[in-house]
Amino acid sequence: MTLRARAGRTGMMRAGMILPPVLLLALLFLYPLALVVRDSLSPDGAGGGALSTRAYSDVFGEASFRDALLNTIGIAAGATAGTLVLGFVLAFVVAFVPFPGSRALSRFIDVFLAFPSFLITLALLFVYGTVGMANGLWTDVTGASSGPFDFLHTPWGVLLAEVTYFTPFVMRPLLAAFAQTETAQLEAAASLGARPGRIVRQVVLPEALPALAAGGGLVLVLCLNEFGIVLFTGAKGVTTLPTLVYGKAILDGDYTGACVVAVVNVALSAALYGLYRMLLTRTGAHRARPV
Amino acid sequence: MNVRAANVRAMNGGIRNGGIRFDGVTVAYDATVVLDDFDLTVEPGEVMALLGPSGSGKTTALRAVAGFVRPRTGRVLIGGQDVTALPPHRRGIGMVVQQYALFPHMRVEANVAFGLKARKVPRGEIAGRVAEALEMTGMDGFAERYPRELSGGQQQRVAIARALAVRPGVLLLDEPLSALDARLRAGMLTELARLHRELPGLSMLYVTHDQSEALTLADRIAVMDRARLRDCGTPQSLYRAPGSAFTASFVGSANLLAARWCGEDAVELDGGVRIRVRGSGGGEGEATLCIRPHLIGLGEPPGPSGPPSPDVPDMNVLHGAVTGLQWRGASHRVTVSLPPSGAELTAEVRELSSPPALGEKVSVHFAAADAVVLPPGGTP
Amino acid sequence: MPAPYSLVHGRGARWALRALFLVLFLPLFALPLLVIAAASFATGWSGALPNGATTAHYADLARGDSADALLVSLLTAAAASGLALLTGTWAALAAQALPRRVRRAVNALFVLPVAVPSVVVGLAFLVAFSEPPLLLNGTREIVVIAHTVLVTAFAHQSVTAALARLDPAYEQSAASLGASPARVLWQVKLPLLLPSLTAAAGLCFALSMGELSATMMLYPPDWLPLPVRIHAATDRGALFTGAALAVVLMATTLAVLLAVSRIRSKASYRQPS
Q1: Which of B195, B215, B245 is a domain's end point?
Q2: Number of folded domains in chain A?
Q3: Of A167, A170, B301, B329, which is least packed with CB atoms within 10 Å of its CB?
Q4: Is A180 inside any structural domain?
Q5: Chain A: residue nearest C84 by CA?
Q6: Is A14 in contact with C115 (Cβ distance < 8 A)?
Q7: Locate the ABC transporter domain: which residues (chain B) (predicted)?
Q8: How far, in Å, CA of C57 to CA of C242, rounded?
Q9: Same structural domain, B207 and B61
Q10: CA of A205 vs chain B CAs: smallest distance (Å)
Q11: How far apart are CA B340 and CA B343, in angstroms?
Q12: Model confidence over A74-98: pLDDT tens digits?
């Protein structure tokens, strides 16, 4: 056997090592997803009958679906905007106005990210629930029989919970970006006569933009897919696409309908994720640094 | 004829009288003193090099002028005005650092215009002043580029243009050439020297650990060591008459030998070798003998026809064995070990056609006037 | 070392920003977790502070099936994070031998499960594995496998990132010393990657412990992880029991993360960061 052929063969073998995990993922992830798409197109029973889009027109015709779709997009967009603003402010203070304990804080954020989202809704039930802290305080102070805070079971409650839970997801890449911003650049700007406000706008912000975009895009997708927060608010008040999938499949036993909603949800997420990747490469163009 | 002359005139007109004064400045982080009771005056239009090893406090001194470190005690004055309490953006300085610190997301043009916009220079004036600064640094024609599209030397020129565009009275340079290779460094040194000639009103504080940069560019050199100012003077005076062994080894190269005074104009090396030195009134006890390598000759001194001769009592002649030989193109460096102590002396002589072999016995000679006696310490 | 440059100079401005930070940060992030902890010890909560203190909720947990739920969660998370780490690391290492384009496609494929709603993954499992040849619906394994699929992306991502940071000089000098690819992998690459691997394992474990969406679609009656219990409790109005269960969940997750970070700091001398 020639040397080249041998080198070629070991190269092939090394490349072939990728097959086991890829095949596993195909079997456990791609194949089930493909079946969801197939079932959404076979309203007359799994695998049987001709392909038809009848299930789609049925689902699109339901008011509950249109509500869920609008809720999902609206809450996701609002939560993303909220996390971007809040995340930028908080990360900025941690990075540039350091104070004792700000390092412990970034550890806290890491831990926070590891906790499940529904804990936030659970906590909000105690804080703003009908018999929670805020209302209790109100009735104690004013003597009224019930408090004014009753938004937890509305989209606003979901929005508040999502902003709370997802803000650290924006802070983390931002903190990494801020850590990479060269102090020398900030100093150069200050020595040239720029006030802190100008430095933030013209030096810090442009350089953090890719990180901001990355964090924002991730949060947008995660919000579109969020389930736990919405489920814990008491699903009757607010329905989003993921809770609609759960409702149709588990509560109603309507698998075809659930598959249709699932396909819509995935398509929406994929489209927005793609949009965000595109945005990322575009804003990322300025990032390349001389070596 | 001549845009350049006009630009130079315009910029000179804009530069305020600079000058820097450190007045007992002490900087400390927690318990560590990084700059200790520092006094130094940089005259308007003067280039002052802060020379010293890393950790000597030179960068801290520069950052105290820029306002990035706050002195624990003492004052910093720029152009006669106390700026100790002013934030950096109100000090009217220009600063250039080793890693350029150009804004990567702005074109060259925007980088240079940044300081002008920050200082609210009228919009109509900005384009002209950007062009002027780029022209002065030879970077006209690169205005549309991004920093990443430029070489290191070009980036540093842009950084200098950016600092000059605001017409500062004081230009702070922190190891500005350290990131460049040797050839570019030499070219940039020439450029900086030209800028210094063309902008006589501009004071420059130039931090470096490289003595050749300091010797080439500076009007005066401040030698720093362990948070303190050791010596300050013109390059020539520091070179010819260093005040300490530390300065001698940091400004130019030097043979430093432990010695002991014996009389008005002589010292004795370990082992009793007597050396006549530059008459300075003499002294007592321990001392350090300093002889520049290029002032040492190899072999017996020239005969009676030459200016110095063995009859002239001012000439020292020593004998030893060659322990090291380096060829350096135009010169040879010959290291000779002197018995009985084994102290080593290095001579830098014009390239030898037949260099001595290692171990060969040779003599070396140097004039008493070239043997300088310094306070003790600093010898190997 | 020179002190880090602070953008804000005035003392007052600095403190104002810090105050703003605390005003935003404390109520938003620290308060929820504290509230849950406080509620788990409360007899009731109808004012600014809990009405009274009790450990009754924990006593109830100890009597009920909650210990089982904790065990179920721990076993599921351990199995899922182990499998995910194996698959993710394998894929990340094998992808290095691929041409650039193929490698990027493979990396994109492994990130995909993050972009798909977990509920949809649960639904897809129900659809795919309720019929032969793979009849898994109603088994415990289906929960473990679903968790594995969901967290593999995180393991793969962090190992890929660590590999990109790894200086190829280590690998090359090992190879130049005559080490076979297998030896390079076991004695050089994996030890150097250890800190990233343990961090990835910790993250996967934590995510699996808290997984709710796919689990709600798939769990069999004899395999109820903690999050499902917490939902069941709050859904029937037993908020304080839910809070106690949540504290158990958080404490367990924290303990595991802490243990993992200890392994990490032990190994971190291997790779200066």
Answers
A1: B245
A2: 1
A3: B329
A4: yes
A5: A21
A6: no
A7: 20-251
A8: 9
A9: yes
A10: 11
A11: 8
A12: 999 999 999 999 999 888 888 877 7
Residue B25 lies in a domain: yes
Whether residue C270 is predicted with pLDDT greater than 50 in this model: the reply is no
Residue C194 confidence (pLDDT): 87
> Would you call B68 an interface residue with chain C, using a CB distance cutoff of 8 Å?
yes
B75 and B162 belong to one structural domain: yes
Q: Are residues B261 and B239 in the same domain?
A: no
CB–CB contact B104 A286 (8 Å) = yes
Of the three residues B210, B245, B280, the one that is the final residue of a domain is B245
Please name the member of C8, C129, C257 whose beta carbon is closest to the beta carbon of A114. Answer: C257
CATH number at residue B171: 3.40.50.300
- Which pLDDT belongs to residue C266? 54
A235: domain CATH number is 1.10.3720.10
* Structure confidence by residue, pLDDT tens digits, C155-184: 998 899 888 888 888 888 888 777 888 888
C216/A246 Cβ within 8 A: yes
Average pLDDT in the C42-67 region? 79
Asked if the C-beta of A201 comes within 8 angstroms of chain B's C-beta atoms, the answer is no
- Give the pLDDT band of residue C251 (cuts 50, 70, 90): very high
pLDDT reported for residue C134: 76
Higher-scoring residue by pLDDT: C116, C46: C116
Chain A residues within an 8 Å CB radius of B110: none
Q: Does B87 touch chain C (CB under 8 A)?
A: yes
Determine contact: B93 vs chain A, CB below 8 A. Answer: yes
B60 contacts chain C (CB < 8 A): yes
Q: Say whether the peptide bond before residue B340 is cis (omega within 30 degrees of 0).
A: yes
List the domain range (segments joined by +) for residue B325. 253-374
Work out the pLDDT band at C5, boundaries 50, 70, 90: low
How high is the pLDDT of residue A178? 86
- Residue A109: domain span: 69-286
What are the backbone dihedrals phi and psi of residue B75, each rounded to the nearest 5 degrees, phi first?
-130, 155
The DSSP string of A16-62 is HTTHHHHHHHIIIIIHHHHHHHHHHT-TTSSS-S---SHHHHHHHT-
Handedness of CA A221, A226, A230, A232 (dihedral sign): negative
Nearest to A191 among B93, B99, B147 (CB): B93
pLDDT at B335: 95
Pick among B65, B70, B89, B117 to test the A interface (most A CBs inside 10 A): B89
Pick A234 or C71 by higher pLDDT: C71
Angstrom distances, CA of residue B307 to CA of A32, B304, C10: 101, 7, 69
What's the mean pLDDT when you consider all of chain C? Answer: 84
Same domain, B239 and B266: no
How far, in whole angstroms, is CA B191 from its chain's centroid? Answer: 16
- CB distance from B98 to chain C under 8 Å? no
Spatial separation of the C-alpha atoms in residues A9 and C102, rounded to whole Å: 18
**Do B286 and B340 have their domain in common?**
yes
* B55 neighbourhood in chain C, CB within 8 Å: none
Candidate from C3, C5, C9 with C-beta closest to B29: C3
The segments of chain B whose pLDDT lies below 70 read 1-4, 10-17, 280-282, 303-313, 378-380
Per-residue pLDDT of B260-290, as tens digits, reads 988 888 898 888 888 988 876 667 888 899 9
Asked whether residue A47 is assigned to any structural domain, the reply reads: no
Confidence of residue A3 (pLDDT cuts 50, 70, 90): low
Which pLDDT value is given to residue C206?
Answer: 93
**Is residue B380 included in any domain, yes or no?**
no
CB contact (8 A) between residue C125 and residue A31: no
Query: What 3-state DSSP class applies to C64?
Result: coil
Q: Which CATH number fits domain C57-270: 3.20.20.70, 1.10.3720.10, 3.10.150.10, 3.30.1330.10?
A: 1.10.3720.10
User: Which residue reads 């945005």 in tokens?
Assistant: A279
The answer to whether B64 contacts chain C (CB < 8 Å) is: no
Mean pLDDT to the nearest integer, A133-160: 80
The answer to whether the beta carbons of residues C98 and C221 sit under 8 Å apart is no
Alpha carbon of B60: minimum distance to chain A alpha carbons (Å): 14
C124 exposure class (CB count in 10 Å sphere: 0-12, 13-18, 19+):
buried
User: For residue A270, what pLDDT is reported?
Assistant: 83
Burial of B32 from C-beta contacts in 10 A (0-12 / 13-18 / 19+): exposed
**Mutation site for C-interface testing, chosen from A118, A226, A246 by largest number of C Cβ within 10 Å:** A118
Whether residue B344 sits in one domain with residue B290: yes
For residue B47, give the 3-state DSSP assignment: strand
